[in-house]
Inverse folding.
């Protein structure tokens, strides 16, 4: 009996010792603070991204390195730091983005220029535009080398390819609003979706300021903010100048002979104003729909723009023009225009509308043609003179 009692006591003592952590136990036996459960309500805002011109997005930086992102009329997202847990209780409808974002499906071509500036083209591995549709050399080269592959346009993506590549973000243009079922399907498959709305920024510098959002998403916040600050500094001498008083008409001619022009609150009109010019249509389309352009009959354009000091032909819809004769083939009435007779007619390059960060250079181009006594011989980035 004594032996049995002694054996029982020994077994009880061994069991108690097994429940007490050893002083020399390895660290992994006790979960570190960083890996303990995090809850949505624990994410306290510590700082916010400072924005000077952009109005379509905001970013709040929270405890633990998390970032809450809000894009107007598109939805909210939570950027989770690399290696961190997804918080418990994330509200329904908040897209969860797990850093690093390096398998991105890009259906918003205007965003590629921001990836390029941040040395992050490699993060885009899936494209909604095929190789023939890219005017940005780095994007074309990435597709030709196979580092970026075509995964179907925004309205008909290759879901199998997107899932096979482990896509961690689908970056869509506002065209996705016309195909809501695509967004729903991507999200159903676990692919978070963000809608690129820089095109809704009326101020051209607001469009450029979207680089700050991509800096946050790609872990390059400091680089993005330094770039934007540098752009403001180089533009400062132009922005501080008084208006030249010269009027500008920016237009294209459609296949049926109508004239397509930008509204007076659009970023093109704003760029002309920042460069020292006066957009010829000062109150066109105010308070109407969200479209940035409107069509008018040639007769109305003739009456409004005949005496404009400068004409700029928009090649985004039509082909680029090189000569005044090519312009007059579209409408002989343009021969009566003051700018045509004085040789102050220009055309945009196709690359302007994909290189969204080029708006700074575009404003510099506009200022040059508005202030130069002799327009011949100007070295410009996005405009060329019709001869």
């Amino acid at each position: 009996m004594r032996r049995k009692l002694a054996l029982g006591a020994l077994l009880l003592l061994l069991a108690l010792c097994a429940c007490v952590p050893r002083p020399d136990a390895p660290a992994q036996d006790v979960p570190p603070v960083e890996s303990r459960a995090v809850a949505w309500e624990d994410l306290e805002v510590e700082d916010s991204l400072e924005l000077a011109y952009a109005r379509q997005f905001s970013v709040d930086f929270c405890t633990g390195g998390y970032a809450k992102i809000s894009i107007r009329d598109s939805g909210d997202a939570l950027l989770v730091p690399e290696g961190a847990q997804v918080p418990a209780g994330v509200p329904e409808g908040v897209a969860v983005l797990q850093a690093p974002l390096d398998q991105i499906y890009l259906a918003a071509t205007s965003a590629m220029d921001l990836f390029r500036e941040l040395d992050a083209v490699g993060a885009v591995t899936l494209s909604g535009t095929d190789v023939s549709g890219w005017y940005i050399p780095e994007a074309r080269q990435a597709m030709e080398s196979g580092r970026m592959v075509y995964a179907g346009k925004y309205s008909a993506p290759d879901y199998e390819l997107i899932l096979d590549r482990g896509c961690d973000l689908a970056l869509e243009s506002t065209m996705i609003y016309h195909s809501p079922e695509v967004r729903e399907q991507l999200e159903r498959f676990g692919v978070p979706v963000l809608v690129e709305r820089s095109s809704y920024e009326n101020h051209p510098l607001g469009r450029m300021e979207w680089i700050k959002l991509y800096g946050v998403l790609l872990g390059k916040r400091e680089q993005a903010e330094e770039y934007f600050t540098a752009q403001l500094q180089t533009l400062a001498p132009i922005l501080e100048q008084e208006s030249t008083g010269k009027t500008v008409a920016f237009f294209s001619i459609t296949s049926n002979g109508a004239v397509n022009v930008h509204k007076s609150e659009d970023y093109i009109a704003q760029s002309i104003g920042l460069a020292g010019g006066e957009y010829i249509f000062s109150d066109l389309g105010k308070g109407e729909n969200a479209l940035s352009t409107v069509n008018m009959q040639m007769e109305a354009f003739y009456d409004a723009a005949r005496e404009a000091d400068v004409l700029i032909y928009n090649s985004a819809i039509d082909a680029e023009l090189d000569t005044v004769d090519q312009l007059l083939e579209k409408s002989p009435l343009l021969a009566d225009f003051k700018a045509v007779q004085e040789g102050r007619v220009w055309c945009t390059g196709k690359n302007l509308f994909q290189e969204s960060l080029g708006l700074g250079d575009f404003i510099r181009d506009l200022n040059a043609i508005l202030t130069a006594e002799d327009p011949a011989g100007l070295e410009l980035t996005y405009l060329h003179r019709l001869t």
Remarks:
- The chain has two domains: 40-230, 242-385.
- The domain at 40-230 is CATH 3.40.50.1980 (Rossmann fold).
- The first helix runs from residue 2 to 19.
